[in-house]
Write a structure and sequence with these properties.
This protein has about 230 residues and is of the alpha/beta class. The chain has two domains: about 150 residues, 3-Layer(aba) Sandwich (Rossmann fold), CATH 3.40.50; about 60 residues, no CATH class. The protein is built from eight helices and nine strands. Helix 4 packs parallel to helix 5. It starts with a strand and ends with a helix. Bound molecules: adenosine-5'-triphosphate and magnesium ion. The site of adenosine-5'-triphosphate has 11 residues, from strand 2 and helix 1. Adenosine-5'-triphosphate (ATP) binds next to strand 2 and helix 1.
Length: about 230
């Protein structure tokens, strides 16, 4: 099932953080939201997650069906991986917390770290726990806000392979943000370019890159040129 945002506008006082933003993400699709600092990416994800209310517009799914992995997750470094998952499973009121925790440990490859304190894990494994928390209720849609920003190249690759598997094998719709736009080009089916709260482009990353490719520039350069040509 497709998930849609329609005409979403959000203001903070006089500042318009999002202006009439519409987009959709299909089942099993990876959508990257990219754009400069302050573009409104986190605000948009927070609205999809039901954390913030839009001033105008709507989201086609209730927040219960949307898993949310914020940049600063609420996990506890003094609790073990299993204790964290169990705590959040209870908070989310999942039907059988122990079974769900076991499934998540398996699915995220964390079973052998289950009884380690979260604070002792590598950044890559901590990010897996964050994602496991977002997936506890088995949501059809998963939102990831800059999930790879603190990871080394190898951990990043593992992260994206995992997320890609979720989409391809489980049919999860994934919406993520990143400043590493090469990552968006490589892993996303489509990109949504946001700048100053407005959608400048939605489509396959190749479409944004097509003209630039002929002149031999990489995606990041093409992206910056695109923004500049649009006045950003
Ligand atoms: N709670 C808030 N109160 C007031 N202004 C806010 C609030 N949250 C966000 N903003 C403003 O809304 C705009 C969009 O912010 P947002 O955090 O969504 O951008 P972003 O695209 O996620 O940026 P970054 O790439 O730096 O993470 C910015 O101008 C920001 O200052
Ligand atoms: Mg942000």
């Amino acid at each position: 099932m497709t998930t849609e945002a329609r005409g979403v506008t959000k203001r903070f006082g006089d500042r318009v953080a999002l202006r009439d933003v519409s987009f959709s993400v299909g089942e099993g699709e990876l959508l990257a939201v990219i754009g400069p600092n302050g573009a409104g990416k986190t605000t948009l994800l927070s609205i999809l997650a039901g954390i913030l209310r839009p001033d105008e517009g709507e989201v086609s799914r209730p927040p219960e069906e949307i898993g949310w992995v914020p940049q600063q997750p609420a996990v506890y470094s003094k609790l073990t991986v299993r204790e964290n998952l169990r705590l959040f499973a209870r908070l989310e009121k999942v039907a059988d917390p122990d079974a769900v925790v076991a499934r998540m440990l398996e699915q995220t490859g964390l079973a052998d770290r289950a009884d380690d304190e979260l604070g002792t894990l590598s950044g890559g494994n901590r990010q897996r726990v964050n994602i496991a928390v977002g997936l506890l209720a088995d949501p059809p849609v998963l939102l990831l806000d800059e999930p790879s920003s603190s990871l080394d190249p190898r951990q990043r690759e593992r992260l994206w392979e995992f997320v890609d598997g979720l989409a391809r094998e489980h049919g999860t719709s994934v919406v993520f943000t990143t400043h590493n736009v090469a990552e968006a080009e490589r892993w996303a089916d489509r990109v949504l370019v946001l700048a100053d709260g407005e959608v400048l482009f939605t489509g396959a990353p190749q479409a944004l890159h097509r003209d630039a490719k002929r002149t031999g520039v990489d995606f990041e350069t093409a992206f910056v040129r695109f923004l500049r040509a649009q006045g950003h």
